[in-house]
Amino acid sequence: MSVRQLSFSSRISPRLTDLGLLGPAIAVILVFMVAPMAIMFVYSFLEAAPYGGVEWRFTTDAYTSILFERDFLDDSLTFTPDYLVVLARSVFQAGIATLLCLVISVPTAYYIATRPERQKNIWLVLITIPYWVNLLIRTIALLFVLRGDGPINAVLMNLGFISEPLPLSYNGFAVCLGLIYSFLPFMVLPLYSAFERFDFRLLEAAYDLYASRRTAFLRIVLPVMRPGLIAGSLLVFIPSIGSYLAPDILGGGKTLMIGNLIGTQFQSARNWPFGAALSMILLTLTLLVLLWLARRAGQQTSDCR
Amino acid sequence: MKKRILSAALLAGAAVHPAFAAGDLFIYTWGEYTPPEMVAKFEKTYGVKVHIDTYDSMETMLAKLKSGAGGYDVIVPGHDTMTILVREGLLEPINVSQMENYKHVDETWRDVFWDPGRVYSAPWAWGSTAFVIDSAVVDGADHSLKTLFEPTDAVKGKINMLRDVNDVINMALRYLGKPRCNENPEDLKAVLDLLTTQKAFVKSYNSETKELLASGEAVVSMSWNGYAMRAREERPTLEYIYPKEGYSGWMDNVAVPKGAPNLENAKLWVNFVMAPENAAMITNYARYSNGIKGSEAYVDKALAGVPELNPPADAPAPEFLTACTPEVTKLYDRVWTKLLR
Fold first, then answer.
1. Complex confidence, ipTM
2. Left (φ > 0), alpha (ψ -120 to 50) or beta: where does A59 sit?
3. Residue B88 and residue A82: Cβ atoms within 8 Å?
């Protein structure tokens, strides 16, 4: 920092400097996050206009219709599991994807973190290369790989292992694979940075003190890894649960996830308030998971002290 | 400086002589629907730069217009969406019937229920929504929706349905012999049962039917006739079926949204589209029939007499449906959610 900069910043109060530095970020958050969310919140309490849009009359219909519906036949208000099923499927799919990402990423991140410095960078670039390509294109490409006439089935059939193409696409399996493929680096990278900071002498010390491999892992490795694990899991779980492309393209549109359900409400169903209400529910759910993890992480650190 | 004078002269010219309009034209339409040569011809004739933005469903277009995202001069709504756009006051009354090239519009498409007397729109293209079979795998001789709803073993797991609530439910209603835009709960329960049973044999609900059929991923698929023709060019065993239970007809229309920034250029485009040699370009490119008399002379010879554009004499006439009421839309969405939940 030059002398001139120093004298400049000393002339104004530190608080003002902070505000000046944070200003652009705060403005972006206000305009592109808080404002749209406020609109969604308001819309979720309005009536749906007949052909899309909203009527400015207050109602909680959008929220009640998540759990209850007017019966087809007698118009009575009855419980409907339809939307809960979709929500549960989203949580399940995202959970499986997160878990499998974890299983793949731990050895990968460990391997990269223990390479010499120059190799590390090559591996990291290799991990990120696929992500220079647009998500939509990658998803469609994956569909072509999995399809009946795709390379996997072609190879297996030519080798004579199968006579009919395996049903790899247009099902839950393809969706799950798509989610893992889409978000894997978000798990690898935080885990890598956790491993990288890990002081392997701690392990040696543990073994010197007759810790078993299991104890060493649970008491030494895991606590150090925890922030990376939590960050990685959140970075995979949150975009997965609201994912739109994977179920749409790889699932063949046969089963809805919450993202598709919300999309439908703003399109063919023309029920914007209901779509907004579903978005609010999804947001609340995500926030709850975040808060819970943040609190747990906080407790863990204070336990350590 | 020279450039500025030139553009000022062009602008002045635009004010007095519409044939020399300068500036831009923003078209919002379906993908792969606007012939590039047609755009080039328009740009050359009028000195207007054409920009094309595409949508993948009427709902996307409607949602965008309703949300106030303006900036478009020309849209290409389907006939059922036209009714909504007119009712909601989202279109500019451009008096198409007074335009120079209106004389070329076929009588069938003049006094249409979605735009009586053609105040707002000109015909763009029309076609039908039925289904395609791969005749190498399936026998479609009975021309029945049964092929889709009660599939034989060879077809099971290789059916594609359009990802369109209305088209799918209407097709089911026809198979069940029930009226369209149906509010009757018993009928909708029957539709849901039929579709749920069928779902076990459905590969995907996807609107990219050309690709699925041409690659052989689907051996039976709901399809628009134009896509069916393009698929057949890649896989000659495909056959477009006009089901005896009936099928939907549709017409896309060229219209101008309210508040179009380049209204005069938009009108030039609408008039331009109705000229037979230009309308023929639409048919040659998008493979759908246009509604313009005299365009046949300019249509590719290969397209004359193709089954996808010329229903056999014994096929039922296409049914042009009005947009269903919001209540029906709501019920249909519930059927759809229950089907895909």
1. 0.79
2. beta
3. no
